Structure formats: C-alpha cells, structure tokens
Amino acid sequence: MAVKNFVVGLFDDEAVLFPAVKKVRTAGYKLHDVYTPFPIHGLDHAMGLRESSLHTAGFIYGITGTTTALSFMSWVFNVDWPLNIGGKPHFPLPAFIPITFELTVLFAAVGMVMTFCYLCQLMPGVKKHIFHPRQTDDKFVMVIELTEKTNAEEVKNFLKASGAHDIEEQQAEAGWWFGRFDKDDEPYLRKVKPVNA
Amino acid sequence: MHLKYESTLREPLVDGVKDYHQVTEDIISPIEAKPGKLWYVGFFISLALLGFGAFSVFWQIYFGVGVWNLNKTIGWGWDITNFVWWVGIGHAGTLISAILLLFRQGWRTGVNRAAEAMTIFAVMCAGQFPIIHMGRVWMAFFILPYPNTRGPVWVNFNSPLLWDVFAISTYFTVSLLFWYSGLLPDFATIRDRAKTKLRKLLYGVASFGWTGSTKHWQRHESLSLVLAGLSTPLVLSVHTIVSFDFATSVIPGWHTTIFPPYFVAGAIFSGFAMVNTLLIITRKILNLEEYITVGHMEAMNKVIVLTGSVVGCAYLTELFMAWYGANPYEFDTFFKYRAAGPLGWSYWIMMTCNVISPQVFWFRKMRRSVAVTFFMSIIVNIGMWFERFVIICTSLYRDYLPSSWSYYRPSWPEVGFYMGTFGLFFTCYFLFAKYFPVIAVAEIKSILKTSGENFKEKMEVYEEQPDEKFAHDVAHAH
Q1: Rounded to two decimals, what is the model's pTM?
Q2: Count: domains in chain B
C-alpha cells in the first residue's frame, strides 16, 4: 500500500458521530474509515458501504461440504470398497445424513472465518496503523484522507464543527505490514503534527 | 437523542454508572494486575488434579484397559458417562452464544464469553474419554477416513460412533472459531492500552492486527450471525448424535426414539448449571457483579427449571413406554433394575437432583438467591452425571443372560481419569480468567446505552411520550 496523509478526529458519542459521517459525505471529503470500539449498527450504511457478501461465501462453502461428504461416502461404499455391512444397502442415504450435515457446517464455518480473515487482512503478525490508541476502547475515530484537492486546515475546522476533538494530522501507512506491536516498525518516517483543537 | 431505547421495565444488564471507558477498565484491568492468592491456590489444585489424571491415564495405557473395572457385561462405565456429561456441559455455551444471539437476547453479552470458553474446555475433556477408552490409543487415528495401505479399508460411515467423531470434532472446531473471532476485538483493546512490551507483543499477535474499522465490524457482524446460525443446528445435532450411540443399539433402556430431544434438553440443563457454578465464582473473584448480575443468574435459572422439567417429562415417558410397550425386557430394565435393584439408588439420586430439586426455581426469590443458585448448580450437575450413569450402567449390568449379570464400581484409574479432566478443565479456566477478557467487552459496550443502569434512567422521558413521537424524532434526528 502507500503512505498517505490523514486528518484524524475523535468522537465521544455515536449520536454525534452519525450526523458527522453524513456531513463528510455531503461535503465531498474522502472518508478513509471510521474506527469504533464496538459494532455500530447503521454506521456502514451511513458511510455508504455496500452490504457484506460473506454469507454468500458461507453458503458456497456449505454446499461444498455437503457435496464432498455425500460424494466421498458414496464413492467409498459403492466404488472403492463395496463392503457388505450386515446386508445393508450400499447407498444408505439416511445413515449419511449426520456426517453430511457436520461436514456442511464445518466447511461453511472454517471457510467463512478464513475468508473473513483474508478480506480484513487479519493474521497473527499482521500490523496496521492505529490512528488513536483509544479507538478500541471508547473513542470513535474518524479518519479523512487528504488528497491534492483537500485543504488540511479546512478539514480540521470542519471536523471541529462536527463535534470532534483532538484533531490532528497524521501521515500513515494505509495498508498492513508484518510487524510487532511492541515496536514502532511502521515502514515510513512518522510525522505527527498536533493541532490545538 | 439515542437511536433506540429499551423499556425501563426491563432490569438493567449493566449496573452502576458506566461509560465505555469504565467498561474497558472494569473488565480488562484484572488481566493487567497480578492474580490474587485464591487464583494461585485454585490453579495449583487444578494442576495437581491434572497431574493425577495424567498418571491414571498413563497407568491405563501402560497396563491396558483391564485396569478399569469394565467387563464383558459392562463395556461402558465411567468413561462414557463422563464423556456424555462433559459434552453436555459444553452445550450451554453454544446455546448462549448462538441461539440467544439469534433470539436477540441482550443478557447473553454478560455471560457468553465465559460460557463459550467453558464449551471449548468441556469438549476438550469429553474428547479424551472415547479415545482413551479405545485401549490402544496409539491406534486412535484409525477412526479417521484417511487413504491407508490396508486396501484402503475405510471407516464405517453407517456407524453412530463414527458420526460422533465427526460431530465432536466439528463442534470443537466451530466453537473455537466462533469464540476466537469474538475475542479478536477484545484482544485489540488489551493491546492498545498495554503498558508493557511483552503484553503489547503477545496481544498484538493474538489480536491478528484488528483495528476496529467499520467495514471489518460489518463483516464481523455478518460472520457472527452466520456462525450462530450454523452453531444452532450443530449443537442440537451433536447431542442428538451422542444419543444415537445408545438409541441405535438394541439394548433395552437405550433403544428409544425419545433420546435425541431428551439428551439435548439434559445437555442444556447441565450446561447452564455449570455456567452458573463458574460465573458465580468468577464474578466474585474478579469483581464483575455489575456485569454478571443477579438478573443474568435468574435468566439462567429459568432455563434450568424449563429444561429440568423437560428432562423430568422424558423420564416419566420412558417409564410409561416401558410399561405400555409390553416388551418384557424393557419392562424389567426399567422397573426391576433401574428404578429398583442393586443400582436403584443411582436412579433416585438422578430423580431427586434433576426433577424434584430444580422446582425451587419456580419461586422468584430462589431464582435470585446467589447461594441457592450456586448450591443448585452443583446439585444439577451431580444429577446429570447420574443420569448418564443410570442410562449406561443400569441398562448393561442386567443383560439377556442372567449368568453374565454383574455389578459395577469404578477402579482408581477410572476415578483418577475423571478427576484429571476436572484438572484440565479448571486449569484452562483459570488461565482463561487470568489472560482473557472473561466478558465480551465490545458486546457489553454495544448494549450499554440501551441496557446500562445509568442510561436507562435517562430513558424515562421517552417512556412517557407516545411511540409515534419517538419514531418521528429518530427519523428526523439527523
């Protein structure tokens, strides 16, 4: 990814955050992200994010599990080693239900979690820029990206008017890298200019 | 103006004056402090038990399965009893985290983390029993359908015991994934407020680099919901399949169609009792009484009295069917050797603990008493252990051939093995209570403004105004 310039503002209350998000969008600023300590229902819609398709992926993984279980067990009992078990049929569908069900659930769950980790770039050893240490505690951190067209001072004043505090400009890596959280190993020279908010 | 509020008639789920930061402080600070004396005492007792269990298992593997008091008549004894008991205990965790999530029960947020941890540790304990029971544990991998050089000879997919292998391993994996995906944001919280380098490093690795991005939360919500949707039928299927181990056989006392729902109800019953046992201790030691309130215990006691009564109905139905079914062997099993006979005492312990004593929870005062809840949680778990013992042993010790009739009491390695799993369970739980947030911090924050005591008080204004006005104000708030 790349190193970019951001203006960061902190909000204390989600009731103040919502109108601010709406105003950012109408004002036309590039909203990088909003970091929150817990899921806020409706914030994704307010930010104009599209719905997650993770559940569709889960469905596909699920039917993969169903097919795997059914076809494997049928292949074993009918093709690879047709064993006579007490004269029972070689394709005992009712007896296949439990394992088929379990494999459906297993494939769907494992597949979805792996997809989730892949999409959100989550893995042991992965590190990302934390704009404010309280973003996982009690603050809602709005991050606006500065492009050539945006004026930093204007964005700061805008955030202040929307109810944010501790507004500052940060230069940060926008993507992820392999790093340790006990070391300041962000792959760029960090310049933080605090602003009297 | 808040986007939604909850009726003030409902009891708050978080007591005291709290803001988001205070929630973090309350739940995370025990992790950052040195554990108290009680923690060390408990932890070392658990370790000692675990050590004794390991020795008992070593003894059994070294000398063979003959050191157990199982015999030709009684092939399943304490081992399978303990297996079913531990698996059952695990079920409450999934019920709380999955089924109550789907039902949008806010109170689950206070107890779900610890209950899910309990599920995982209980399933770990349960899994030991069938594996060690195999006798030649080094051959345990034969239960997996892997391409081998013996044909390949595959496992028998028609066998309920193999279904169990799939059910338990899937259950463990899915529970672990569900639990850990919920832990990611909380680990990030610990990481970002960590003062020491080691804590920053370790929780940084454990948090997978979670930042709290809105898009990630959206996917996280979607993931939790689908995992809950998957876990709900899964948890029902697991104990159903465990009950198939018995129900698909032709042993009188096992061969009944009532087993799946009866086992599932029993599992939830014992699981909630174990959640109560653990949480009453946890809330006391970690000072979390404001998050795990008496209201939470009352809710769980309601589930206990419901499932206990379901189980009671199942016992009576079994007795009725044994008489009405007109099968002399089944009649004898139930009326001569289960409710009476040399092992009859265990049946009446079961009846007293599971059916009669939980009826105290019809009284609100009893449901809300911490002492009664704690006492009953132990009683219910004793009762549910005896239920499995009764089902397994009283059906086996009097079989079709009177010359092979036998009696069963466990040998010391069997008892030691059981104690060892307690050691494993509590060792894991103590480590969890020390190093993990025992309450889902992010989830508590998400219900704080609707169910926190200090926020509920502010809602009385909205309570008095008509619904239309509230809806109108929300719609035009911003």
Answers
A1: 0.92
A2: 1
